[in-house]
Task: structure prediction
Amino acid sequence: MKAITIDSYGKQVPLVMTEQPMPEIGEHDVLVDIHAASLNPIDFKIKEGKMKFLLSYKFPLILGNDFSGVVVKVGERVNAYKPGDEVFGRPRKNRIGTLAEFIAVHEDDISLKPRNLSFEEAASIPLVGLTTYQAFVDILKLQKGQKILIHAGSGGVGTFAIQLAKWMGAFVATTASDKGYDLVKSMGADLIINYKKENFEDMLTGYDAVFDTLGGAALEKSFRILKPGGQIVSVSGMPNARFGKEANLGWIKTTILSIISHKTTALEKKTNTRYHFLFMKPSGVQLNIIKEYIEEGHIKPVIDKVYPLEDTGQAFQYLEAGGAKGKVVIRIK
Ligand SMILES: NC(=O)c1ccc[n+]([C@@H]2O[C@H](COP(=O)([O-])OP(=O)(O)OC[C@H]3O[C@@H](n4cnc5c(N)ncnc54)[C@H](OP(=O)(O)O)[C@@H]3O)[C@@H](O)[C@H]2O)c1
Result:
């Protein structure tokens, strides 16, 4: 089968279309004929070797973390799916490789695809959808009427997050530039802060929650807008020791995390708030809930560009440039 692979880590390492053996399925796996994949910043971070602390891979490595497609074969112990089912998913982290014609994926990591979406639209959802669901439902337990700031509302995560927060009944402030204004408005954002001209930390106060997709200075300033007891979930900031313990990283890595996250730990104490780092997990169960939200019309996919598989290199460059409005999708079939 054709696949987009790398032979080593590095920013300049080329993405190459190679011929790879067909994946073999285990007893709980399904073999999927992939129709579309979508890109996420984690793809170029993996390519550049920036995720080595948390994820280790062998070469040649097939890249890609999101897919939609059709089941062609199921393992002996799979009951939930059958050949012909249209599915979507984010495979577990040691079994990535969606930029390919086929993938063998654990049945627990997928769901039937939303009936009202094309394959390209469906492939844009799993990673950003699960990330947001885990931030808002599992961690923040976001309540109706609460105020949340969503950073980078026009990005892949942000466009999904605004819609889910609105569906959950929250008041949503978001940061976007002029280029993203109309998009975040159409997603339902209540308050839009132009991050190129305005300082969100001077404009917002008494917030219940922040969903941070930026890290760095934006994360540190976010502590200032929270009310006491407020919470930040970051997917781009420093993982802290609490994350290390929950993720069973072992005491050496957990100690390193405790040291490198000292700033956020100090800010938590100073502002009487709570900081969580989230590294999203695959979940077919949660994906099925997201599928229902989509079929009921509460959430719509937002696609910026679609590239054919052979132009994946260009698609990576486009996403890495940082201005995507919604998701970048790769058409495979
Ligand atoms: N830990 C996890 O499990 C996890 C899961 C998902 C994502 N992430 C991380 O979350 C981050 C965001 O992912 P994504 O898919 O949303 O990325 P993305 O789609 O590439 O985000 C691009 C968007 O960010 C906006 N943006 C850039 N700088 C901004 C700023 N300072 N303030 C407000 N908006 C800004 C851009 O708007 P303009 O063009 O208008 O500037 C653009 O629309 C990435 O670092 C990714 O790795 C982590």
About this structure: The chain has a mean pLDDT of 97. The pocket of NAP is lined by residues 40-42, 127, 131, 151-152, 154-158, 175-177, 179-180, 195, 213-214, 218, 235-236, 278-280, 319, 322-325 (CB under 6 Å).
